[in-house]
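Thread: "does anyone have the structure for this chain?"

Original post by V.I.:
We have the sequence but no experimental structure in hand. Need at least a predicted one for the grant figures.
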Amino acid sequence: MLRRPILWALLALPFAAGAADVTYGSHGMVLFGGKDGLYASHLPMFHPPHDTQVVLRLHFADPRLDAAMRTRLEGRTALWTLDPDKFELSRLAPGAAQPLRTFAADIVEGHFEQGGATRYGHAPVIVDEVLVYRPLSPAGSVRARSTYVPVGTFLVKLIDSRPDVDHIVRLRRPVGASVVIDKPGLVDDTVLLSRVAPVAGTVWLGTDDLR
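Reply from O.Q.:
Generated one for you, tokens below.
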């Protein structure tokens, strides 16, 4: 069934004054989108510095590169990733004291840690909007249902259990609300999603980092 989008979550407690930011690190992301826009989804884990689910709307500072990537991703489900320079993930939180507006990243065809090929090196990225920012709990938990939020012509699963799956699917057309389905376990939800949403295919399904 369809529900209204759920795109924001409560922020984590602020860091103590003078404390090191435990979210500093190299935050790999899945890059997806098409002619209507580009997005990136942080590859999360249940431990610092990666214990936050983040989805961004972005563009590349180089207009030719931006147009080329939109064209290259349009209508496709092939995996592309970003391998950014290190930064504090907390700077993407709503209300951050020093919001992250830009960063540089290698653009990789395939997974940057699993044999992917770098196609563009150190490309400046402009953050247009933070669509999802959800700190993850390290405690084990199980929810009976999965919620997918619309991001352009895609659905992104909200990570709400441990263990869980990180799942992004392309749609044949946009949907205006979140999609909620019964959770089948740590498997591909695409078949169940296809019964209630116009799914074209899976862009990314990750389980190893969310055990």
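V.I.: this helps a lot. The chain has a mean pLDDT of 91.
O.Q.: and The radius of gyration is 16 Å.
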